[in-house]
Amino acid sequence: MKNFNFYNPTRILFGKNSIADLKDQVPDDAKVMILYGGGSAERTGVLDQVRSALAGRTVLEFGGIEPNPRFATAMKAVEMIREKEITFLLAVGGGSVIDATKFIAAAAKYDGDTWEILTSRGSVIKQALPFGTVLTLPATGSEMNSGGVITNPEKGAKLPFNSVYCYPIFSVLDPEVTYTLPTRQIANGVVDAFVHTIEQYLTYPAAAYVQDGFAESLLRTLIDLGPKALETPENYDIRANLMWTATMALNGLIGAGVPQDWASHMIGHEITALNDTDHARTLAVVLPSLMNDQRGPKREKLLQYASNVWGIHEGSDDVRIDAVIDATCGFFEQMGIKTRLGDYGIDAHDIDHIVTALQDHGMTALGENKAIAPDDARRILEAAL
Ligand code: NZQ
Ligand code: ZN
């Protein structure tokens, strides 16, 4: 096992009616800004629950944060925060609202050009406003990690950042608020959490038996419960388990002490920057092709994944690897998510653009061995057409 330094300060308030409990987590004298997305939180009544929990406090609201949140929108919130001297942020939404809130929390305290927060991947962040979250879409793990991703269409960029100052102080996870999710977003969430787990598991053996066991358990849970959530969306235990699985998939626990990949994510971000394809759908295209392409370096873990997650034990190494890649694609398709680039309107010409963007953004040594260069990414994408 590799050495690690694991830190996660986010308090989790989990369960039915837990939104009311956020009143005890927000300081009494705070000037609060509630941040939300395109209106689902208003329609579903989640915002009203938050407003009731904060009754009697000084509260301002900022709505309109887009899926794949935009830099320009975030900067509007920063201006308002500075003008109104806001002291606490509360994100109400999915990964996009939470990621934007992290960026806004850091940008509001940053004296330089806030674009540097993204070009430095967050390393210039030295402080941030405190913030909490009310999660409405289990997927990204943003509710219990310190990372975010911001899109700037003018620059054709979707860039990740990370900072120890960007952990939420608390996150409220009420599985009942996920009942209103459209099928498309349930599926996106399951596949995103699945690929987060894979990015920290499907690398090379590191004698990290606990982390591998946790990861395999998360993967099996998603394979079992994902399709059931589509069939019976209002089953509390299914939604509760999926919500906690998505959080556990990217809160640092399974990633401690193990090699990590993230190539599918970095290539996927460039696809979203190109044509706004949903994040999870980009992963469902890139990952199977990457598994096939990287079957050499990933051989041992692919065989472990085949055996421990899918119960595939028969045949030669390559037969079992073929079978587990097919099973993974089959699972994504079962969730209603297509796995070819053509399904998202991307052709050979677009691949040039994606590969150039990877180069421009410094994504030239991806994967657990830093061995996936732009030409390898091109081969992986061409095989996914
Ligand atoms: O905008 P509103 O109206 O709120 O609607 C949203 C949005 O249209 C809707 N929604 C959310 N909760 C709902 C709901 N609709 C009905 N009922 C509810 N309870 O769902 C749509 C998608 O929301 P979004 O927040 O964009 O989805 P997700 O949580 O999948 O977040 C995706 C973003 O997170 C980034 C992605 O790149 C993408 O930008 N990621 C963040 C990560 C992190 N911080 O660690 C890691 C991930 O790998 C990912 O990159
Ligand atoms: Zn993701």
UniProtKB/TrEMBL annotation:
Presence of the UniProt keyword Oxidoreductase in the record: yes
InterPro entries: ADH_Fe/GldA, ADH_Fe_C, ADH_Fe_CS, BDH-like
Gene3D superfamilies the record matches: 3.40.50.1970, Dehydroquinate synthase-like - alpha domain
Annotated ranges, domain Alcohol dehydrogenase iron-type/glycerol dehydrogenase GldA: 9-175
Molecular function per GO: alcohol dehydrogenase (NADP+) activity; butanol dehydrogenase (NAD+) activity; metal ion binding; methylglyoxal reductase (NADPH) (acetol producing) activity
SUPFAM superfamilies: Dehydroquinate synthase-like
Domain Fe-containing alcohol dehydrogenase-like C-terminal, chain residue ranges per copy: 187-383
Entry's Gene Ontology cellular component terms: cytosol
Cofactor: Fe cation
Family statement: Belongs to the iron-containing alcohol dehydrogenase family.
Full protein name: Iron-containing alcohol dehydrogenase
The species this protein was found in: Shewanella algicola
Top-level taxonomy: Bacteria, Pseudomonadati, Pseudomonadota, Gammaproteobacteria, Alteromonadales
